[in-house]
């Protein structure tokens, strides 16, 4: 009986694993190189996410609605690739205003006003955080990979912990599959992976764990926030691009929140980061 209750929850594990491997292989070289190469990959991924957002929140979207959203994204990312944060944010604000004005004719402009910054800000941050220095032993690479590993650890820990242990739901009205056991398992796994990564980066174990805690919390909140949007709109997934995952927004919502929070945390700790 126990086996049958667990099996459906793990039935998509193979597809999820293969998708994760493909994504890692696609990202590895640009991640190592950084700069415009990394920015180009981020632009491709985030353009797809923007497309998913517009399609999900605006069933009657016109061609101009997609063009404005994606064009604003690409302009912002071009500025980000040059290290021009304020220009990137300015471009985002300007295009968001145009996109909202275009949406007014169909109603519900709130989703447009929310969606463009929701996709653009994390994409800008992930480019700026990675930087232009090439190599594994650079500040940008190590900080970004630290965030990515914590989010992966939290996600994997929550998946297996929640599926195996079960128990009370974390937020049943937003995400019925998430449990408190999964959240705790994800927190533990994220901290463990952070401490292991920190050993290679020269971080004290206590600091690695301390940095991981808010990142895991943010990743969970990012996931729940998108679940809330999807429930409000009445859709299950943002797309079907990734087998076992849904759309890119479904897969990267946790990372988007953690990257923004992580960038702020790294600014606060300053020279405590041992690399770069």
Automatic annotation (TrEMBL):
* UniProt xrefs under Pfam families: CTP_transf_1
Which of the seven top EC classes does this enzyme belong to?
transferase
* Compartment(s) of residence: Cell membrane
Q: Does the keyword Transmembrane helix apply?
A: yes
Membrane topology of the entry: Multi-pass membrane protein
EC numbers listed for it are 2.7.7.41
Q: What is its main location?
A: membrane
Provide the GO MF annotations for this entry: nucleotidyltransferase activity
Q: In which pathway does it act?
A: Lipid metabolism; Phospholipid metabolism; CDP-diacylglycerol biosynthesis; CDP-diacylglycerol from sn-glycerol 3-phosphate: step 3/3
Catalytic activity line of the entry: a 1,2-diacyl-sn-glycero-3-phosphate + CTP + H(+) = a CDP-1,2-diacyl-sn-glycerol + diphosphate
User: Which keywords, in A-to-Z order, does the entry hold?
Assistant: Cell membrane, Lipid biosynthesis, Lipid metabolism, Membrane, Nucleotidyltransferase, Phospholipid biosynthesis, Phospholipid metabolism, Transferase, Transmembrane, Transmembrane helix
Superkingdom, taxonomy of origin: Bacteria
Transmembrane region(s): 20-47, 59-78, 84-101, 110-129, 141-160, 180-200, 206-225, 252-270
- PANTHER family from the xrefs? PHOSPHATIDATE CYTIDYLYLTRANSFERASE
Q: What is this protein called?
A: Phosphatidate cytidylyltransferase
Q: What is the organism field in this record? A: Algimonas ampicilliniresistens
């Amino acid at each position: 009986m126990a086996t049958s209750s667990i099996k459906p929850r793990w039935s998509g594990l193979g597809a999820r694993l293969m998708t994760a491997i493909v994504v890692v292989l696609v990202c590895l070289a640009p991640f190592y190189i950084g700069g415009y190469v990394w920015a180009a990959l981020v632009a491709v991924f985030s353009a797809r996410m923007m497309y998913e957002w517009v399609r999900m929140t605006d069933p009657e979207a016109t061609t101009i609605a997609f063009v404005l959203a994606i064009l604003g994204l690409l302009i912002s990312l071009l500025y980000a690739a040059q290290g021009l944060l304020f220009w990137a944010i300015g471009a985002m604000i300007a295009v968001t205003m145009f996109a909202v004005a275009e949406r007014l004719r169909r109603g519900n402009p709130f989703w447009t006003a929310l969606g463009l910054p929701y996709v653009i800000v994390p994409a800008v941050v992930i480019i700026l955080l990675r930087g232009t220095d090439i190599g594994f032993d650079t500040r940008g690479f190590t900080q970004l990979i630290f965030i990515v590993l914590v989010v992966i650890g939290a996600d994997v820990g929550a998946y297996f912990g929640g599926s195996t242990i079960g128990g009370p739901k974390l937020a049943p009205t937003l995400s019925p599959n998430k449990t408190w056991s999964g959240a705790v398992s994800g927190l533990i796994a994220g901290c463990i992976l952070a401490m292991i990564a920190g050993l290679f980066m020269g971080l004290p174990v206590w600091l690695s764990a301390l940095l991981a805690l808010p990142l895991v919390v943010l990743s969970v909140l990012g996931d729940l926030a998108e679940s809330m949007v999807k429930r409000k709109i009445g859709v299950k997934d943002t797309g079907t691009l990734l087998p076992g995952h849904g759309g890119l927004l479904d897969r990267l919502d946790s990372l988007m929140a953690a990257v923004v929070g992580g960038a702020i945390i790294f600014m606060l700790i300053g020279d405590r980061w041992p690399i770069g």
